[in-house]
Amino acid sequence: MGGSVDSGPAGNGGAILDASSGGAPDDAGSGGSGCQPGQYTGSFDGTHHPAITFNFAPVSVKVGTVSFALQGTGGALTVHSGKLDATLTNLVVPNAGTLTATLTGKFDCSTGHIVDGHLTGQIDVVNVFTSTISGSWDGAVDPAGAFSGTWTESEPQLPAAGGAGAGGGSGTGAPACVPPVSGTGGTIGYGTGCGTWNAQ
């Protein structure tokens, strides 16, 4: 883009400065928030419905943290050190296990959205099962520089989750994974998980 990045703190909505226009803000990204490299941290929630465990009772995120760094210059930044890290709970076991995942992808400065977001990791339900998971995540930045988005994943015996709200099905007639909206539970297919996240 031929400009320099405002050196303000990560997540503050600093704009790209276009050198050719004498340092005037260039409205790259959603709502003119710009393309701001830096470290972003926040929280996430959601639910995973194991394919075979607890009579199909879901486990939910009890405490979840999300973190990633945006690095690079120009029209697209690369996601580095992206991670989801959570403790899980359910109606039977208050501390039911953990979910960890690595996040990769890019931030498109022209749209203000995370693109090509991939998720790979593991879910461990204490004394019951451990499974790898894979899926996707997306997100967008608002004019204040805050990110929010969704994540979705599935266990390996199921088709990999293909995007927000598109979790795999297990052939049992269970509904596809639909992330919760405004604190509601949503619906979820066996062997899939999904939820929402935010970071600044």
Rounded radius of gyration (Å): 18 Å
Rounded to the nearest angstrom, the distance between the terminal CA atoms is 24 Å
Tell me the β content: over 45%
Count of all domains: 1
Widest sheet: strand order? 4-5-6-7-8-9-10-11
Number of helices: 0
Provide the low-confidence segments as ranges.
Answer: 1-33, 159-175
Which structural category do the helix and sheet elements fall into?
mainly beta
* Average of per-residue pLDDT values: 73
In brief:
The protein is mainly β and 200 residues long. The protein contains no helices and eleven strands.
Please give a handful of descriptors for the protein shown:
200 residues, mainly beta, eight-stranded antiparallel barrel, three-stranded antiparallel beta sheet, 0% helix
What does the model show?
The structure is a single chain. The chain has 200 residues and is mainly beta. It has one domain. The protein has no helices and eleven strands. The protein has strands at residues 3-5, 16-18, 24-26, 38-49, 59-71, 76-89, 97-108, 113-125, 129-141, 147-154, 192-199. The protein has an eight-stranded antiparallel barrel with strand order 4-5-6-7-8-9-10-11. Strands 1-2-3 form a three-stranded antiparallel beta sheet, with no helix packed on it. It is elongated and about 45 Å long. It starts with a strand and ends with a strand. Residues 1-33 and 159-175 have low confidence and may be disordered.
